[in-house]
Amino acid sequence: MNVPAQIPPWTLRNRTFAWGTRTYLMGILNVTPDSFSDGGQFNSQSSALSQAQHLVEAGIDILDIGGQSTRPQAVEIAEEEELDRVIPIIQAIRSELDIPISVDTTRSSVARAAIAAGADLVNDVSGGIHDPQMLSTVANLNVPIILMHRRGTPQTMQQFTNYENLIQDIIDFLKQQIDAALAAGIPKDFLAIDPGIGFAKTGPQNLALLRQIAQFQALGCPILVGPSRKSFIGQILNQPDPQQRIWGTAAACCAAIQGGADILRIHDGAAMGEVCQVADAIWRTV
Description:
Helix content is about 40%, strand content about 15%. By secondary structure, it is α/β, with parallel strands linked by helices. Strand 3, helix 1 and strand 4 (about 60-65) form a beta-alpha-beta unit. Helix 2 packs parallel to helix 3. The protein is globular, with a radius of gyration of 17 Å.
């Protein structure tokens, strides 16, 4: 299952991301006290650097660093606190590792500071909606951005799960934000999309989304999917502990790869690396 050949590759640091040839892994590094799966585990500089090294050794392709939890009911922190959490960690990791770094933020000020500190791209879970300055800022920074579908905020998003047509509504939103990004001056080649599993979606809607990932290829951008350890997997498995959802995450990742996902945002680097190797051998033509 290949992405259309006309999508040009990204080059980040010394790595080429040739879309459609293999699945790339984005390793999650939450430097927060309250993320749903690993809150408080990596919010010191030493523990964050250690986890970054662990993920790189496991073979991840991009390290995604975020200082604001986006789990349901998460409270928005002050801008200064987000900067204080994220920027020293990016600086520390960049001084030690040459891995491409993504900053997981909805604030243009954090994106700007993160790129200055050594990050290479922006991952905005609001799709560029939260901060009206985000898209123009990214255009000026001349870096890629991942635009995710979400309704509301972490505190309100699970109240917004009624859709006229789930897949078409998400496609329409992403197309709208692609157009907004282009109008702001971001090249199409620098855009990726994320349908936002777990964000303003019910468990059955997340499953429907995974069944229909291939429809998002029509937007002509690399597709990121982030099912890792999420609550819909816990509901299916009756597993309340997110860290015990690795096998369920593996199944969801296989579905995403079969649908043509290009990047998987994951916690468990080595395990999901093996999942990708086998799934790519089955579904991708190299």
